[in-house]
Structure formats: C-alpha cells, structure tokens
Amino acid sequence: MSIFRIAHLSDPHLPPPKGAFGWRDIASKRLLSRIAWRRKHKEHQPDVLAAIVADIKAYAPDHIALTGDLTNFASTVEVEAARLWLSSLGASDRITLSPGNHDALVKGPGPERFAPWSDWLGDDRATAFPQVRLRGQVAIFNLCSAVPTAPHLATGRLGQAQLARLDALLADPAHRDHFRVVLIHHPPIRGAVSRRKSLDDQDALREVLARRGGDLVLHGHAHEGLVSTMPGPAGAAIPVLGAPSASAMGGGKHPAARWHAIEIDRDDAGATVVRVIARGLDSRTGQVTELGRYVLA
What we know:
It is a single chain. By secondary structure, this protein is an alpha/beta fold. The protein is built from 6 helices and 12 strands. The protein has one domain: 4-Layer Sandwich (Purple Acid Phosphatase, chain A, domain 2), CATH 3.60.21. The strands form 2 sheets. It has a 6-stranded mixed β-sheet with strand order 3-2-1-10-11-12. Helix 6 (202-212) links the parallel strand 6 and strand 7 (216-219). Helix 5 runs parallel beside helix 6 (202-212). The longest helix has 14 residues, at 46-59. The protein is globular, with a radius of gyration of 18 Å. The two termini are 19 Å apart.
C-alpha cells in the first residue's frame, strides 16, 4: 500500500454559466476570452470532465491536486459556479487548488478574488500564498502564479513576497522529513510554453528550489502531458509533471483529457519511490482508461 496517493488534474475550463459575460465586459480583456471561447468551447466538454472526475473518484486518492483554470472569464458568476463544482468534487480538506491565469483574467482585488475558494486553497482559509498543507508524510506547498495580464498575454508571476515566504517554508525544519510537493499553474520549465504564456519569474523560483529542495512539482497551463526535471540541491533533480486539460476532447492542437495518479511509496531500503499512472480519454472508445505508467527517478 502506498504511503500517499495524489490525483493530479488541471485546466477543466468549466462551461460558463448564464450571465458569465455582460455588456460591461465588452471594454475588458473578457471580450477577447469570450471570442476565444466561442472558437474553443467544443474542445472542452462537460461530459469528458465528468468521466475524468468519476475515474478519479473510483481511484479514491488521498488527495486531489488541481492546478488551475477552472473559469474562462473570471467573472463572479463563474467563480461561484466553480465553487459549487469544487464542492461536488470532494471534501475541501482533501483538495488543493492552485489558481490559473483564466481565474485572474482581469484586474481585481488581488488574492482576495479567490476568497470563495478559500476552503480549497489551504487549511487556514486565507487567500495569501503560499500555503502549506500537511497530510501524513506529505507537505503540499500551494503557490499562485495567477495575475491579471495585458490582452494577448497569459503569463504568470509569483512575486518577491511569495517567493521569500516559499523559501522560508521550505527551509523550515518542520517540513524536512515530509515528501514536499509544490503546486503551481504555470510550468516552471523553460520552453514548456511560449514566452507570452510563461512564468515571468521562473528563474527566481528555480533558484529557491535549487537552494531549498523539493520532491515533486505539479503544474498545468500547457494543456500537454509534460515530464521534466529542474535542479535541486547538491545536483539532485526535482521531477516536474504537467497534466493536460481535464475536459479536452482531443484530436486537435492538444491531447485528449488526462489525469495522473501519483503513488508515493518507499522501497525495501527506505528510499522514496514515485509511481505515475496516466489515465485519460481513449478517443477510439470514448472511455477513460489507463494510458501508461512509469516511475519518476
């Protein structure tokens, strides 16, 4: 039996409910997103997402990691609809949400915009980041790279304050013996996405992790299944795993919906072993099935 099992999904892009876009939004970035959604909405299907969620629930993970983009326009109506969807996903103390760029599409009240989702951000119901959740032998460090950007940009940024707090939290002896998982929407890997979609301060994040360490980084945003590494202390490599959109039909620019079952275990010698089982939509059958499995070194 694994020490801990995490289900990682990302970018569900829930369908906008009625009233998600109003006439006041014509003068904002939401207009561009609405135009884009009219082009891309067929790619993101509620039935596909429902099948992925049902598969995750059947797996019965210890925790669910959700790396952002629940909404499309970040409207108040969408945020509330996403809160109800999160409630249906499972108990809030077993789900951690790292918001995405679509969840902070336009200028707003800073991190407080995520107050309706506070139960899923961390244990202290705050909207400040990062937050840490201790679950058994696992410590989940939840970051937020979601910030408003100019039209045609989907970049992310953590900021000096969040990076400094992450540095301190990773250095805290209280977390030293935990398996440390970092959640972020934007990939911290160079070349994973185009520059206009990248994490502005990814080099600063990489410096923190190279100095303080971590055991696994989970991200979304790219709508691709990505496996990479980044430098850790003393030449060690930190695995970085990205999940595609959990609602994508596939067949176009991006792959079909997928989620990752991450099983953290120890071998006979006491070393940590991380197994990944990729499960997703089989475009031939329309069913969610196992796509492959591997071990992260």
